[in-house]
């Protein structure tokens, strides 16, 4: 599921590339013993099945029947911005290849697939993806071959790793850390990549405690310097005014620099959008898209703010104009507030999560998101974590904001059904 950016808004190491080319050229052979049972794996159409994300690509080769399978002259070709293709010479000892398909994955739990066609002149099977779904450059491409012969034997290779859907490397610079892989297009300030690495490092432990772990993969941030090149890959992506998109299927975010500059991009937008990737991986049912729960949550992880979000909400509280949040439908992400400004859902959502984490701790955030599911809604999960009714939760939040005419008075924190460990968390201000 795609989420839009929060503002509606390389050189490649040659030695590594050479090693990848050499590996791709190597012949691969797997033999299934007569009468062997196929290794249990997720179905071809699964979204990860029983395979945990961290072990997703460790899924081994498997087969049915007693054929000996060979895959050689295997290759991947990037045709950016028009897609990519896979080729290989494949064979079975028990019959001709009746069906050949390539399955690929840019990030764990997400898959694409295309059937391969046979070229008699080369003896190769080729599978082509034509970018019909709008895929940005620099996403990872991990893939496997799925084969069936005329005798009914089947084979599924292990994952082949390390390819990328690449643009002209001379126009991009690549930065890597344990937290993220960043691609910076020529034309952006030279510190863009390092700023992004620094921002992700600064939030690493906050992400870990808020979600229970870090992502099972290193996300990618693809940062464009101009609108023309950003639009090149956006086949069928709709709104031409969007300047940023995040998609868990890509395992990353794509942004074109806007008026906020590099500080806003690295310390605000990237951290926000990576928050959406955490939502996708760690919230089983997902946070409702285009709502204050979803966008306010991602805003919690920003270390740079375009303006003082909390002060805006406190001003509404002081003027007696603060709308209800938990009672009723609550504000949508970009709804206009009584003050005539947009982004009401972003700001109220952020301030609610700030209060929640300040009072109950980051572990309570993890407990809250873990509980969400088809049978447990947001308010019900809040009630389980806090031991309070929805009405009392809203009352205490509003009192903390000063929405009451009386001066706020400290309220004892109740004993929780699932008591978390409260960890100090430094919240950003507009001046950070």
- What amount of the residues lies in strands? 15-25%
Specify the CATH homologous superfamily of the domain at 11-34 and 54-164: Immunoglobulins
Order of helices and strands: EHEEEEEEEEEEEEHEHEEHHHHHHH
Q: What best-fitting shape do the alpha-carbon axes yield? A: elongated
* CATH hierarchy, class of the domain at 11-34 and 54-164: Mainly Beta
Radius of gyration: 25 Å
Record keyword descriptors for this entry:
432 residues, Immunoglobulin-like, 10 helices, elongated
Tell me about this structure.
- The chain has 432 residues and is α+β, with helices and mostly antiparallel strands.
- Among the domains are: 11-34 and 54-164, Immunoglobulin-like (Sandwich), CATH 2.60.40; 310-432, no CATH class.
- The chain is 29% helix and 22% strand.
- It has helices at residues 14-25, 192-211, 227-232, 261-282, 292-299, 309-318, 344-360, 362-371, 378-386, 390-401; strands at residues 2-4, 28-31, 62-64, 68-78, 84-92, 97-105, 112-119, 124-129, 140-149, 154-156, 160-164, 172-176, 181-185, 220-224, 244-247, 252-256.
- The strands form two sheets. Strands 2, 3, 4, 5, 6, 7, 8, 9, 10 and 11 form a ten-stranded antiparallel β-sheet that branches. It has a six-stranded mixed β-sheet with strand order 1-15-16-14-13-12.
- α4 (261-282) crosses α5 (292-299) and α8 packs across α9.
- The two termini are 32 Å apart.
- The model is unreliable at 1-52 and 405-424 (pLDDT under 50).
């Amino acid at each position: 599921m795609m989420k839009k950016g929060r503002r509606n808004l390389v050189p490649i190491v040659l030695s590594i590339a050479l090693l990848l080319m050499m590996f791709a050229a190597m012949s691969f052979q797997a033999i299934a013993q007569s009468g062997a049972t196929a290794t249990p794996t997720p179905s071809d159409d699964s979204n990860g099945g029983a395979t945990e994300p961290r072990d997703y690509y460790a899924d081994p080769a498997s087969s049915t029947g007693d054929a000996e399978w060979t895959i050689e002259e295997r290759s991947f070709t990037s045709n950016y911005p028009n897609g990519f293709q896979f080729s290989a010479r494949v064979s079975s000892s028990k019959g001709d290849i009746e069906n050949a398909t390539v399955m690929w994955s840019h990030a764990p739990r997400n898959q694409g697939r295309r059937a391969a066609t046979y070229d008699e002149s080369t003896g190769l099977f080729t599978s082509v993806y034509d970018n019909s779904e709008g895929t940005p450059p620099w996403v990872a491409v991990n893939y496997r071959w799925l084969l069936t012969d005329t005798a009914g034997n089947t084979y599924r290779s292990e994952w082949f790793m390390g390819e990328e859907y690449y643009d002209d490397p001379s126009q991009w610079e690549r930065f890597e850390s344990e937290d993220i892989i960043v691609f910076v297009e020529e034309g952006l300030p030279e510190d863009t990549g390092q700023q992004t690495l620094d921002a992700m490092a600064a939030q690493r432990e906050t992400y870990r405690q808020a979600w229970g772990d870090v992502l099972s993969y290193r996300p990618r941030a693809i940062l464009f310097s101009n609108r023309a090149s950003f639009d090149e890959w956006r086949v069928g992506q709709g709104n031409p005014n969007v300047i940023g998109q995040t998609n868990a299927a890509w395992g990353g975010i794509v942004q074109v620099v806007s008026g906020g500059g590099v500080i806003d991009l690295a310390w605000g937008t990237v951290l926000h959008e990576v928050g959406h990737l955490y939502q996708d991986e760690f919230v089983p049912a997902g946070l409702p898209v285009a709502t204050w729960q979803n966008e306010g949550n991602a805003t919690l992880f920003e270390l740079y703010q375009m303006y003082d979000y909390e002060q805006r909400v406190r001003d509404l509280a002081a003027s007696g104009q603060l709308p209800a949040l938990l009672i009723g439908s609550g504000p949508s992400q970009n709804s206009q507030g009584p003050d005539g400004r947009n982004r009401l859902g972003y700001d109220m959502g952020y301030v609610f999560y700030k209060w929640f984490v300040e009072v109950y701790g980051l572990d309570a955030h993890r407990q809250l998101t873990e509980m969400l599911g088809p049978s447990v809604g947001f308010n019900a999960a809040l009630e389980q974590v806090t031991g309070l009714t929805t009405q009392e939760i809203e009352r205490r939040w509003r009192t903390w904001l000063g929405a009451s005419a009386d001066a706020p008075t400290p309220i004892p924190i109740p004993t929780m059904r699932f008591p978390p460990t409260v960890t100090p968390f430094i919240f950003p201000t507009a001046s950070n």
